[in-house]
Structure formats: structure tokens, C-alpha cells
Inverse folding.
């Protein structure tokens, strides 16, 4: 059976994968490895490690969000994966939860070219891909305040991420970001960014992750974000609100 490690991980998360989904993940793996020779997409290339660290971890994020009630079964929530790289965590979640209305935002053109080709091969043309920086796209009316959920893995420290992500959310929406051992420190440092951008820490729970210990940090948007945020490209990371 293809994707045996992933199948077991998903089963344990309460997400039995059907043969078509397993085939989609198998194709995803082969496309990732083939493209990785030209474009730097991932340092993890081992078949089982990709299943654990990329696919499994992404599905664990999704499972935690359904359990927390941030996502509801079969509801077509508008979801943005900010800085998705090769598509994580949003794309594995979309393969397993077809109702999600996923938009992928990624600054590097070579990566979005990969993603567009991959989506065509997987038959997932309804997933939108935007090449651009969050600092710019978040000011476009079509995207500002329009999402129920922003996902971001390994993109920036929480204080920076809050400035980049909250402008995309509707009030009542959530930012969900898996964090490693620095989670407590990043949360402590994000206080001012949260106040300025209209967010509050909603929860930080251990993720039943198949690989490394992770905490899923959830930020709720409780007030509109002032139009000054995010600041110009590069500034949020260079001078974090804090
Ligand atoms: N989320 C993926 C990729 C992490 S690497 C994963 O977990 O595997 C971070 C990615 O975010 C890079 O591909 C980078 O190009 C993108 N990125 C960083 N800052 C960004 C910004 N301000 N706007 C859009 N994309 C950004």
C-alpha cells in the first residue's frame, strides 16, 4: 500500500483516508521530490519522513482545528495558507477535507509554479494560488478581512505573524500556527502585536503530531485591524511590533 505511515497516522487522528486520497499523497510526494532538484522546496525528502513531518503534521493541524470547533465538518470555510512553501499545511488538509475553500499565498514564484502544476495533476484546480507577499496582498480588498482561518507553519515568529495574518481575517476568525519549543517565548513576545492588530491568544495546545512535539497556537481576531497594518514588505520582520 502506498503511504502506509500516513495512512496509520491519519487513522489515529480519526481520519481514515480512501484509496484516491492515498494516491493523491503518493503523487504529491513524487512531484515534490522531482521538483526539489530544481527548486529548493524541502530539506526532508525521505519517503517516510515526508509522510510524518509534512503530510501527517499538516493533517494533525487540521484534526486539532475540527476538534476545537474552529473548522466545522463540511462547512466551506475560506482558508488562507500564508507562506505555504510546497503547500504545508494547507494542501494536505484540503486533500482530506474537500469542503475547505483554500487559497495559498507564497512569495516565491518558483514555488507557486510548482504548486500550480501540482494542483493540476491532483485535480484540485479550485485551490487558488497567489504569488505575493502578505504585506502587499493583505491590503487588497478581495483578501482583507475575508478569511475565517489563516494557517502558517514555519513562516515567522508569532509577533511578526500576527501583523501579517490578522489583516486577512474576519472578526471572529482564527490564526492557527504550529510552534516548537519556543512557543511560550513567542507568545510572551506577541502581546503588543496582538493588542495593535486586534487579536487575543485563544489557546495553545499540544498537537498530536506524528513527529516532533508541537504546540498549536490559536489567535482569535476580536477587533478590526487598523489600515496601517501590515507595514511595508520586510518591515514586520525587521521591526516586530513589540
Ligand atoms: N509553510 C511551509 C513553508 C515554510 S518556509 C512549510 O511549513 O513547509 C516559509 C515560506 O514562507 C517560504 O516559502 C517563504 O517564501 C514564505 N514567506 C515568508 N514570508 C512571506 C511573506 N511575507 N509573504 C508571503 N510568503 C512569505
Amino acid at each position: 500500500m502506498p503511504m502506509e505511515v500516513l495512512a496509520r497516522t491519519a487513522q489515529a487522528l480519526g481520519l481514515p483516508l480512501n484509496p484516491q486520497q492515498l494516491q493523491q499523497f503518493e503523487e504529491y510526494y513524487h512531484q515534490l521530490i522531482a521538483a526539489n532538484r530544481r527548486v529548493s522546496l524541502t530539506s526532508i525528502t525521505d519517503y517516510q519522513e515526508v509522510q510524518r513531518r509534512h503530510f501527517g503534521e499538516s493533517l494533525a493541524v487540521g484534526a486539532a482545528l475540527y476538534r476545537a470547533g474552529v473548522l466545522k465538518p463540511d462547512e466551506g470555510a475560506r482558508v488562507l495558507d500564508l507562506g505555504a512553501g510546497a503547500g504545508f499545511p494547507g494542501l494536505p488538509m484540503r486533500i482530506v477535507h474537500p469542503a475547505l475553500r483554500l487559497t495559498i499565498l507564497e512569495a516565491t514564484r518558483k514555488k507557486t509554479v510548482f504548486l500550480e502544476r501540482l494542483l493540476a495533476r491532483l485535480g484540485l484546480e479550485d485551490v487558488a494560488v497567489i504569488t505575493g507577499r502578505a504585506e502587499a496582498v493583505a491590503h487588497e480588498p478581495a483578501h482583507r478581512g475575508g478569511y475565517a482561518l489563516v494557517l502558517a507553519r514555519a513562516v515567522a515568529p508569532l509577533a511578526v505573524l500576527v501583523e501579517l495574518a490578522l489583516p486577512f481575517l474576519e472578526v471572529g476568525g482564527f490564526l492557527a500556527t504550529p510552534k516548537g519549543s519556543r512557543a511560550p517565548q513567542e507568545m510572551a513576545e506577541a502581546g503588543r502585536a496582538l493588542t495593535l492588530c486586534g487579536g487575543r491568544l485563544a489557546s495553545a495546545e499540544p498537537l498530536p503530531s506524528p513527529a516532533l512535539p508541537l504546540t498549536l497556537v490559536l489567535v482569535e481576531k476580536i477587533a478590526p485591524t487598523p489600515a496601517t497594518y501590515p507595514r511595508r514588505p520586510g518591515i514586520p520582520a525587521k521591526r516586530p511590533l513589540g
Summary: The chain has a mean pLDDT of 96. The CA atoms of residues 17 and 28 lie 15 Å apart.
